[in-house]
Every structure is written in C-alpha cells, then in structure tokens.
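Deviation from plan, reported transparently: pyridoxal-5'-phosphate complex.
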Amino acid sequence: MAARAAKLREQGHRVFAFGVGEPDFETPEHIREAAKKAIDRGASHYTAVTGTPALKKAICAATERDRGWAPRPEQVVVSCGVKHALFNLALALFDPGDEVIIPAPYWVSYPEQVRLAGATPVIVPTQEEDAWLLTGASLAAAITPRTRAIILCTPSNPTGSAYPRERVVDLGQALKKSPDALLIVDEIYGELVYSGFKHYSPALVLPDLRDRIIVVDGVSKTHAMTGWRVGWSISPPEVAKALDVIQGQSTTNPAAVSQEAAIAALSSPRDDFMKMHAAFQERRNRMVEGLRALPGVKCRMPDGAFYALADVRGLYGLKAGDKELKSDEDIAYWLLDTAHVAAVAGAPFGAPGYIRFSYACSKETIDEGLAAVRQAIEAARR
Ligand SMILES: Cc1ncc(COP(=O)(O)O)c(C=O)c1O
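Because the crystal trials were delayed, the predicted structure below was used instead.
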C-alpha cells in the first residue's frame, strides 16, 4: 500500500493519507528548545543503559500525576520507543511453549513479537457491539497453565476503544484464575481520550495485582515525538533487571538528547498537548460523522487514540472494473487506486471486514478525502 501510494504521489497525484500512525504536528517548541540546550550542555555521551535518573524521576512523577499511582525509579526501563520496550519484554519473558493472550483487533506488532520470542500468541476475539473490549469471561476461558501474559492496549490501536473502570475490574477477577500470568498494558494513547472518557490504568484500579502488571508508555503520540524514540516500561524490579541485561547487550541507552527532550515533555505545562488534544477530538468527530454518512459504511465512535475502525462489509460486491470487491484488502486497494485514499485494511489487525482510518491529519484532508471516497462509491454503484 505504501509503495503504491508513493508511486501515485510521484505521478503527481494528491494522496489522502489516512494510514499514518503518528501525529501530524511538530514536536512542541519548548521541547525542541530544551533538546537544543541539552546538546550544548553536552548531552552527547552514553547514559545509564536504562535511562538517566532525571528521566526516570520525571516518568514516575508523570505516572503519579496522570495515572494516579506512583512507581519507583528502579521499576522503570527507558527504551528506544514503546515498540522497543515491548520487544525487550518479549525477549525477557516469553519462551517456547508459553502462551500470550492478545485480544483482537490488536496492534500488529504484538503477535509478531510473541512469535519472535518463540512463544504462541492466543488471539481472543472481541465484539464491536461490546466496544471491542475483552470480557472477563473470555479472558478466563483463554487462560491455561501455559499462559505467561496478556497484552492489553487501552485506548487501542486500531479500534480506538478504551477500557472503562468496571471492565478493568472484571478482567482483574479473571486474572486471578492464573497464579502468575502477567498483564502487560500498552498505555501509549492513555492521554488521548475524548468527550470526557476517563482513562483508567489497570495498575491503579487493581492494586492487588500490581506486582503482576507491566505498563508500557512513551512520548511518541502524546507529545508528537515519534522520531525521538523514547518509550519505557514500568515493571517489577526483577523484570526491570532482566530488561537492563537485554538492552545492555543490544542498543544500550536511548539517545541522550532524546531523553532530555522527554524530560521537558513530561515536566512542562501541558498547553501544547491540550491544543493537540482538542484538534484530535474535533477531527475524530469529523472523521466518524463523515464515514457514517458514506453509503455502505458503518463506524463506531472511538473513545481515544487517533483511529476510526470502519465496517466496510456493506461495500462488498461493488465492482472495480471486472473485479468484484470481496475483502477489506480489496477495498483498501480500490480506495487507493480510485479515490487516492490511503487507509489500512483491517485483516492484519485481526479485524477482517474493517478499514482503519487515521485522523492524524487536517480537517480539510478528512473532508476532501471522504468526498473522494463518496464519489468512488457512487460511481461504482452506477
Ligand atoms: C499501540 C501502539 N503501541 C506502541 C507503538 C509504538 O510506539 P513507539 O513509536 O513509541 O515505538 C504504537 C505505534 O504505532 C502503537 O500504536
């Protein structure tokens, strides 16, 4: 898809980019300024493998401020982005024979990282009618003596769904079925929830299980810092020690200057973040309303992140030339070729029949891109 979109651009076409997984904003100026100053002060050396004490302190303070519970610095391991933090966890924790429960739809890297570690992903479906959330009953049914961990993403990429407090409690009950399975929670979109939805960290809601909960989080999405590569895990200290060993023999520390930028992001007033947050909320509403207005398309209002997962099964049967569109992948390619709209097919996320539209783009792009989709559908229906 990306190669085909790039080719269209080369040919001079405007491509509506609804496939992107990163904010379209630049990193806020005060963060960039802090990083420039840090370079001049000499942030050009190795740091401690798992991050500087100042950054760990800032992470602990931000977790207490934003998530309502207070980790200790020895639980924090800073890596080169959340993907790296998750990868290190997979290497540290999963062995052949282990099972790792992943609710579908899922972020594509979770099952692949589990497989890279030689373990087995156990995919548990969720229902759109139930807001794409894992239930305690389905979690309990999937737990076996081989279950090593459950990976949860709230708010989720690709569904945008987030776990309300009572559902976290329900999952906590189910987790008690296993004496030692770990709950890995990806909270990278934790600050990006809308319309008053409150994000609840499982570590806050389930204090009894805190020694089994591992949080991964980072600055990539909240602070428009995807290119700086800073993410972290908060885990029991013995897990953090294993991560230290793995990271020490691979990447060593994340870039010293990026760590300084992350301190600025976590410690300064949240005015820039609030502006981006307001823009995302407005775009979400526009994207979802626009998708719902398309013939044959349905879309649940997501609670957070910056993705809308649209049900496109109502478009099956349309013709692209001689070819009948029969899958989300067919439709995603057809949208790219006919409307120059780049969005991501749902099947790789474990959501066949759906397409993920990112609204990390301008309102004009949303309006014009969806108008192009409408034209393509209407032309195909004639
Ligand atoms: C759910 C989820 N987790 C982790 C990541 C990776 O984040 P990072 O850029 O910090 O590695 C992404 C990026 O798309 C994501 O959507």
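Residues 271-292 form the longest helix (22 residues). We consider this an acceptable substitute for the interim report.
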